[in-house]
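Give me the fold.
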Amino acid sequence: MRVIRAKHAGVCYGVERALDMAVAAMMDEDDTYTLGPLIHNPTVVEQLEQRGVMAVESIDDIERGIVVIRSHGVEPQVMDALKEKGLTVIDATCPHVAKAQRAADELRDAGGTVLVIGRCEHPEVKGLCGHAGARAAVVADVDELPDELVEPVGIVVQTTESKEKLDAVVAELRARGIEPVVKNTICFATRQRQNSAAELADEVDAIVVIGGKNSSNTTHLYEICKSHCARSFFVESVDELQDSWFEGCLTVGVTAGASTPDDQICAVVDYLETL
């Protein structure tokens, strides 16, 4: 069985940067924390915890030490609260997410409605809404567009979303006679991974998508692969693979989300090559 790895897969610059900053922070003698998991990869988060970087859910859980802002960013008021408490803050927000936050600030200042395309429960989207202000509205897709919108209407996008969702929302607004101000903040690395996964899924008998089940960008990769290849499988680690999935396969593809380190990808590839 031939195993083919996607041309673009695995850890992106923003995630690698956040990991490097967290590791550097824990070299200090102070306690080191992150608000929520640094990245959406449970294995990596557990490894960080073993090395002394603790993920907590609330500022109230931190009395002293260093707080690393995770790659997804936070709301402006959270950053203010951390500083007011006298904590040392290391901002590991992905530069692409920070760019999206600045875009949300600009749209808020223009007035009207700011549409945030993304998943409402995702920490990046919560941060974008904090920047977009009181008139922010989160839409997961075109079906969730509010009936009433205060113009001007601006659009900012979760960095790991798909261009197709953005295009559908813009088309619907134009059909309503609204010309939105669009800030296309989809990360180029995300788009690369999505295109690469789609191309590979068209060529293989089965494809494995590796990454945290809580990862938005990995979930999107899986959805894309599933739409191109019926035998698509989403795993967090090599331990979840089942030999029966690949019966009769001559070619198997492997791709991974932007929070998946290379060692996790290699472990899956190595295992598949033994089948």
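The first helix runs from residue 13 to 25.
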